[in-house]
Amino acid sequence: MKLKLTNLTLLIFIATKSFSQESNAVITGKILSSNKVIGDVHIINLKNRYGTISNTNGEFEILVKEGDVLLFSSIQYKNIKITITKDHLKGEFLNVYLTLIVNNLDEVFLHGLTGSLDLDSKSTPNDTIPKANFVFKISDLDKKLPGDEFGYKGHVNAEAFTNPLYLAGGGQGSKYNKQLEEERAVKREVKRKTEFPIKLKKEFGIDFFINDLKIPEENIFNFITYCEYRDILDKYHSNKVLEVIEILKEESKKYNAIKK
């Protein structure tokens, strides 16, 4: 009894597999229009949702079975649908012909023309568009433009366009302008020096100063100020961090000797 059941199961498996292989097949084809191959056409099996795209030679292949509907679409061509038949499956090849979309423009009628180019060109209406009040010459190509007055600044100073002393130009205006720029430069430098120890301590970490350099936490800022004569501020802002570290190591020995 067990042997009969085993044989029956085997027969059902073989029949099912054979039926599945017969019902599904990979079909190839070529897409043409006016005897020219068409590439980049989208092909979608609307039943199993499989899709593909034709290559530059118009060739494609896709998994289908009898009764499946293939949709062929392209921007420049009319969409078509093809239902797969037994003949398609037997031949295993499908030639698809697409029709080019032709856009017909509306007719344009020109009135008041004689058909003579010489006469019609002389009777054209005058141009009512105002002409530009400047003229370019070939010699203008060699001219050098003035430099950007504010190009060296990160942000344009709006006060230069609104303050009467700026707008006056020369005399007190120039003096005020120069004095104001000098004051701002000093403030920027003071701010940079004030923030430097904080940045350095935060970037290197407290452990670096305490464990590696043997500098007590309460003396870290004082030690950084002590080292400024070695230009560590400029080196740090020039991304020469390794040089700054070496300087700190060297100066820590002198600093600790003085403190002792």
CATH third-tier fold name of the domain at 2-97: Immunoglobulin-like
Structural class: alpha+beta
Largest sheet: 4 strands, mixed
Shape: flat
Instruction: Give the fraction of residues assigned to helices.
Output: 40-55%
Strand content: 15-25%
* CATH homologous superfamily title of the domain at 2-97: Immunoglobulins
CATH level 1 name of the domain at 2-97: Mainly Beta
Terminal-residue CA separation? 103 Å
What low-confidence regions span 5 or more consecutive residues with pLDDT below 50? 1-6, 10-21
The number of strands is 8
Integer-rounded radius of gyration: 42 Å
Average pLDDT figure: 78
Separate helix tally: 10
H/E series: HEEEEEEEHEHHHHHHHH
The CATH architecture term of the domain at 2-97 is: Sandwich
Q: Can you give a write-up of this model?
A:
This protein is α+β, with helices and mostly antiparallel strands and 260 residues long. It is built from ten helices and eight strands. It has helices at 2-23, 86-91, 117-122, 159-162, 164-168, 171-204, 206-212, 220-226, 232-237, 241-259, and strands spanning 25-33, 36-37, 42-45, 51-53, 59-64, 69-74, 77-83, 93-97. The strands form two sheets. Strands 1, 2, 5 and 8 form a four-stranded mixed sheet that branches. Strands 4-3-6-7 form a four-stranded antiparallel sheet, with no helix packed on it. Helix 6 packs across helix 8. The radius of gyration is 42 Å and the shape is flat. The protein starts with a helix and ends with a helix.
